[in-house]
Every structure is written in C-alpha cells, then in structure tokens.
Amino acid sequence: MLNMLFKCNISFLFLGLISGVACRGLKPHEICRQLFLSRRVVTESAEFDGGVLVDENGVIESILTRGSVDALLQSGDRTIKVFDGGNLALMAGAVDSHVHVNEPGRTSWEGFVTATQAAAVGGFTTILDMPLNSIPPTTTLENLRIKAKAAKEEVFVDVGFWGGAIPNNEDEYPSMIEAGVVGFKGFLIDSGVPEFPNLKVDDLEKVFAAFNGTEVVLAFHSELNDSNVRNDCNGSAFCTEPYLYDTYLATRPAQMELDAVSLIAKYIGVYDVHVHVVHVSAEGVVPILEEAREQRIASGNKRWRGGVTAETCHHYLTLASEQIPPGHTEYKCSPPIRNQANKEKLWQYIKEHRLDLIASDHSPSVRNLKGTDFLTAWGGVSSVQFGVSLFWTEAKARGYPLSTVSRYLSSGPALMTGLQNKGLLKPGYDADMIYFDPEASFALTPDIIMYKNKISPYMYRVLQGKVIHTFLRGRLIATEGELLNGPQGELLINYDIVFNN
Predict the structure, then answer these.
(1) Is 221 helix (H, G, I), strand (E, B) or coil?
(2) String of b and e for 399-425 (b: at least 16 CB within 10 Å)?
(3) How far apart are the C-alpha atoms of 40 and 343, rounded to whole Å?
(4) Virtual CA dihedral for 467, 472, 478, 484, nearest 10 degrees?
(5) Do 223 and 200 form a contact (C-beta atoms < 8 A)?
(6) 173: buried, middle or exposed (CB in 10 Å: 19+, 13-18, 0-12)?
(7) Which pLDDT score is estimated for 231?
(8) E-strand stretches of 115-265
C-alpha cells in the first residue's frame, strides 16, 4: 500500500513514499519525474521486482529491474519522486474497447461522466465508445462532432470513438477516419435501435471495398438471422414462459453466430481489411476465424494477427446459462450467455492464446427497460467498472498469472484499435498504470457502483483482486474506489477536424 499523502502541485495528489525534494518551481498542472516501484511489476509476458520511470510529461521513460532501481536511487538524483507500492502489482492501465456510453440522446442510460468515473476507479484508463446507442449515432462526421462536444471536458479517463457502418454510408467514412475514429462497427442482425440499421448481405461488398487497404478496424456484431436457422422457441417446453432464460436462449442459437462469421470469412480472403468480431459467445466462432487468419498470413499479410481478431466478454467467461434465475433479465445480452461447457471452451481458447482480447460490452439501460420478461427486456450487461476483478477472479481460479490480465485487458485491446501509446508498460508509452492487489477480495454491492444505472448480474458476488490506485499519464486519478480531482481524460481524436469546422 502506498503510505504517505503528498501534494506535488495544486491539482494533483499522490499517496506515496517520497524520496528527494518537493516539486519546486512547477507551474499548475505540471508534474515531476516519477519512479513507481513494485515487487510485482507486471507486463503482458513477465512479472519482476522493479519499477517504472516516468518523465515530466507523463510518458514512460524506462522499465527498470530492482538492480537498476537501486543504481538510480544511489545516483543522488533528488528531482525524482518515488512511489513505492510494495507488494501491490504495478500494471498497465486496462483498455476497454467496447463501451456503450449512450450520450447524448440516451444519457439517462449512461453518460460520459458516470461511465468514465466507473472506468477510472476500476483501473480502466482508456475506453472506446461504440457508435450506438446514442442519439444521434456516430455514423457521420457531424454526429461525431456532436458526440465529442458532449464528452469534452467531462471524461475522467481517455476516450476514443468507433464509427458506425450502416447501409449506404460509404461517403462518410474517409472524413471520419481523418477525424480519428479507431474503426467502424456494423451489425448483421437488427441492432435493437431504429437509428442504427443493420447491414444486409448485399451491403458487405461495398463496405469491405470502402475500407480496403486502410488501417482502421471493421468490427461486426456477428449474428445472422438466416431463415434456415431455427431461432424461435416453437416446440420448446419453455415457449410460453418468457421469464425463463432458456426461452430467450432458444431464440438466438449458436448457429446464428457461426453463419455470420462464415459469411464474413468469405470477404477476409478477398479484401485487405482488419476484421474484428466483437463479443464472441459461441465457441465455434474461433476455428472459423483461425482458418481465415491462417490463409491471410500464408498469403503474406503483415497485419497484427493477420488482421483477423476477436474478443469475448466478461459475462461469457464468468456466467453460464444454467445459473441464470427466472426473471433476472440483468443477465440478458446479445449474443446470449451460453452453457457451462461453452464457457470452459472459451477459457481453453484464452489459455491457448486463440482469442485476442476481453471487453465489457458495457451496454446499460434504465431499470424499467429490464423487467422480468427475457423476450422483451433490453439486452445488455453493465460491467465497465469491474472488468479487471471479474477477469482475475476466473483467471486466478484457473491458475493463470497476472500477465494474462495485462495481455487480454491492456495490450490486446490497444493493439486491436491501433492505440500506439496505450496498453503497455514500455518506453514512449503513456504512463497509464494501476496498482492492483491480487489477493484482496470485495463484494460487488450497489453502494460501490459508479456507473449510472446500478444494475448488474454480479450483484453481491465476491470478486477477487482489487484496483487500489489508477494513474493517467502519471497522475493519480482514483484511489481505493474514490476519485481525485475533476476530469483529466482526453478525447483520442483529431481535435482540429472535430472541433474546428
């Protein structure tokens, strides 16, 4: 535990063990050179005793072993401030590449203030906002400007934006790419909101052609409503009982995901586009994507992971359909949570590095859209605040090291979205970091939830591992579940294009 209160300047509080002198002569909002210590510095591939040296601009200068730390401290440089986390793990801040903030338009569901506050206390230093369910959706440059104006000066962590891939929208893509969106997301099934229409099979050729050779990601909600797939509950004993989860599960069988990904795979071999499949629920999706990736790489494609990636979510790795009580629609999401055997297969893919990242798909709503009817309730699980602990709870039980958390929650999502200075403890990268106690535990209760609508399928569950401190570019923004100071996040966009018409 960091163990002394120290004020480095008028806007920034640290808890720490201090070496050297105070930050004399600094202007407001400037910070000192800093050395963050831990007996458990964790990267995506290793764990060691050492530290992270951060420059005055909040950028990582170097990663040090304990021997190098001792040599630096013995050099007599008293301008460096030392913050010793002891046995707390020092890790890269987590990146959540799949968050529905919903502001503006549906701000009663979620907003930039509450979503980023929840992210900050949960150890997420960057989130990527999905193009729906805000009104307007982020499908044009003008709509991106409206979204960014709502977010500006309200964000407690850094925020990037996805654009929307909808029918006949190809003319908007170049200006949105120039404005800095990380990629574009499209649906192959009804999105659930009328202002964001889904792509039809006939639209895919134009969409892939529009992004061919670009560096942005084309992401898909991959469920296909094929007439050959039985996706209703006719003939099921549960058909007249919509408060049972199995009734809803019968309406979205795994085959809908497999058909959608098989369709996408046909275009992967033709176009040079980074294709990403969001929230993989059905385990059979992964082998289909792997075959497409292997063919890409064999043809000489040099993109990360061959430009074919996929994520799964905390709810698919934590929950199983057999455990969902009647009427508890806080468990409803699309694609649905499947059975225990499917869950364990996803964990096998984690072990074998056959998935690329974990995201929350934080998709909140107001309580009156939930109810007890699984067929009519809004589908979405809220978890942006608790992703690090959710993942570590399951990973620790399976014997995984802390480096697995960094791989799937930090470096993976940063690499997928092209955030070149995020997600890694590496020189030249932003000093977005957390101190994490992997041995602590806590109960998820309503009073600690910071996102707007306090609904969760994990309510009162005991989770393993606790984020103690969160740093954004070297500044402490949250400690022990409490926020420090006001919003300090930045929008990861081209400000000149977005804010200067």
Answers:
(1) strand
(2) ebebbbbbbbbbbbbbbbbebeebbbb
(3) 30
(4) 170
(5) no
(6) buried
(7) 54
(8) 124-129, 158-161, 163-164, 183-187, 217-221
Q: What is the pLDDT of residue 7?
A: 31
The percentage of the chain sitting over the pLDDT mark of 70, rounded to a whole number, equals: 91
In this prediction the pTM is 0.94
CA angle (82 as vertex; 80, 83 as ends), nearest 5: 150
Q: From the CB of residue 426, how many other CB atoms can be counted at a distance below 10 Å?
A: 16
- Of the candidates 213, 207, 219, the residue with the CA atom closest to the CA atom of residue 303: 213
| pLDDT of 2 above 50 | no
User: Measured between alpha carbons, how far is 397 from 464 in angstroms, rounded to an integer?
Assistant: 9
Q: What residues does 15 pair with on adjacent strands?
A: 5
Q: At what angle do helices 254-268 and 285-298 cross, to 10 degrees?
A: 10
Q: What is the mean pLDDT of residues 422-440?
A: 98
Contact 312, 279 (CB under 8 A): yes
Computed on alpha carbons and rounded to an integer, the radius of gyration of the chain in Å comes to: 22
Q: Where are the beta strands (DSSP E) in 111-231?
A: 124-129, 158-161, 163-164, 183-187, 217-221
Structure token pair of residue 389:
């602990």
Tell me the pLDDT tens digit for each residue of 142-160.
999 999 999 999 999 999 9
Write the CA distances from 454 to 157, 273, 466, integer angstroms.
20, 38, 19
Residue 264 has pLDDT above 90, yes or no: yes
Contact 463, 386 (CB under 8 A): yes
pLDDT, residue 232, reads 58
In the block, residue with structure tokens 């913050």: 83
pLDDT tens digit string along 333-358? 999 999 999 999 999 999 999 999 99
Give the residue-averaged pLDDT of 227-256.
77
